[in-house]
Amino acid sequence: MQDLSPRAADLLAQRLYEAGCRHAFGMPGGEVLTLVDALEQAGVTFHLTKHENAAGFMAEAVHHRDGAPAILVATLGPGAMNGINVVANALQDRVPMIVLTGCVDADEALTYTHQVMDHAQVYRSITKGTFKLTAQGADIVADKAVSLANQPRPGPVHIDIPISVADMCVSSVKKRRLVKAAAVAPEGNCLEKARRWVADAERPIAIVGLDVLYDGSRNVVQAFLEHFGIPFVTTYKAKGVVPEDHPLCLGGAGLSPLADKHLLPLVEQADLVLCLGYDPIEMRPGWREVWDPEEKRVIDISAVINDHYMHQASLNMVADTGATLEAMAKGNPARDTWPGGEPAQVKAALAQAFPTDEEWGPAAVIAETRATMPDETLATADSGAHRILLSQMWDCSEERGLIQSSALCTMGCAVPMAIGLKLAEPDRPVISFSGDAGFLMVAGELSTAAEMGGNPIFLVFVDASLALIELKQRQRQMGNRGVDFDRHDFAAMGRAFGGNGHTVRNREELRTALNEGLKANSFTVIAAEIDRGGYDGRI
């Protein structure tokens, strides 16, 4: 009689479905065939990509739309190793991700060494935890992985799956689920001190970070800032958590020295700094220890204890952001802030520093694209000089309206992220911004874009150089070495993979290409040719 008990792989897949996962990405090998079958049977669609690194970024993009953990599937050995970069990115960018790798059985590994290596040892330093699936413990391992990945701060968790274990039928399964902890706010003297400091502040400023994306406090944060008239900046990952056209919003901060030249003096003038879910892992060294907590009142509300030492606070509260702000605001009257109008002056200075009316160049490409694309457009950004400029100029009206590798700053993420966004939100316009070097790293994924369908737009800044590194090279008065390469026909690449391709050299050509891309039935590659040195003085 056929055993109808679930396989261990089925229990794992069912727990992932229960966690809201509907998509998994990767490249299979014989060691993960049972896992892929189990995922599909559970209702989790497996998507074949051309490289595991790109697969992970597609998975991350889907997570940013549905909130479920991203799923990366890789076979043993080289497959597992190909995912190293994107898993390290998930750890630093606080992305919940379940990394599933196949492995040979323990007895087999004693004498068979081909492609056999210790996956857990490699992944241990770039994940929150690593497990090996067992048959009887499959459901528990799955729940531990999902729970750990989602716990503050979120991150990747690795599960190594032996071939025979995945196939093993399991009977009498008792499912166990870790109950999510309730939101907690501080009380007592700490709360009273925070309430008093907010009431006394004449020049408060807030820095809003990515914890707010995960604790559901967006509306409370906005109401708190509005009630007390507190201007704010966000990290790049938290862009749009309060719409960036809000009069109190001063935009993103942390990577642009040009923007920070205006923002950091305002922080210095503040008499109260509120760090709201602020995780400084995204910030450049210029934001390290920019205040003295002995001289300035600083309240740090974070999901985990502050052990990064990027900054110190006068009052540290490890608590839920929304619950804490509600407790601080209760019965606390509003008052006028910044009587000298300094935040408005800084906002005007930032607008002047990042003008939108240039005839051509990287800033003109961004400005024209933002003006042409619909407000509801979802965007992705690769690492490079263009990302710094884009993150200052691309206004977001919602959280995760622009996603990027903010902490690890890895190249090659924008194209696969855009593919993932289009899969998750097929009815919304999607565009990626890549430098030409970053685009070349993942050009093969254009075939994945064609196979998945939809009409994402892939915009490439073409200057045949690693622009940001070349700029730093010149700033250090070094010779031009190892940063330049040939110009290539990126539009032809788009057409070769079954999409559309345009090369543009002015605003009118760009606007036409964007409008055609929005109406197209397949993806579009737009190669925006710009002069070298176009970022000088702009970032």
Automatic annotation (TrEMBL):
GO terms for biological process: isoleucine biosynthetic process; L-valine biosynthetic process. PROSITE patterns: TPP_ENZYMES. Its EC number is 2.2.1.6. Residues 7-121 form the Thiamine pyrophosphate enzyme N-terminal TPP-binding domain. The keyword Transmembrane helix does not apply. It holds the Pfam family TPP_enzyme_C. The keyword Transferase applies. Keywords: Thiamine pyrophosphate, Transferase. Residues 191-328 form the Thiamine pyrophosphate enzyme central domain. Residues 382-527 form the Thiamine pyrophosphate enzyme TPP-binding domain. It comes from the Bacteria. It is an enzyme of class 2 (transferase). GO terms for cellular component: acetolactate synthase complex. GO terms for molecular function: acetolactate synthase activity; flavin adenine dinucleotide binding; magnesium ion binding; thiamine pyrophosphate binding. Belongs to the TPP enzyme family. This is Acetolactate synthase. It comes from Ruegeria atlantica. The lineage of its organism: Bacteria, Pseudomonadati, Pseudomonadota, Alphaproteobacteria, Rhodobacterales. The gene is alsS_1.
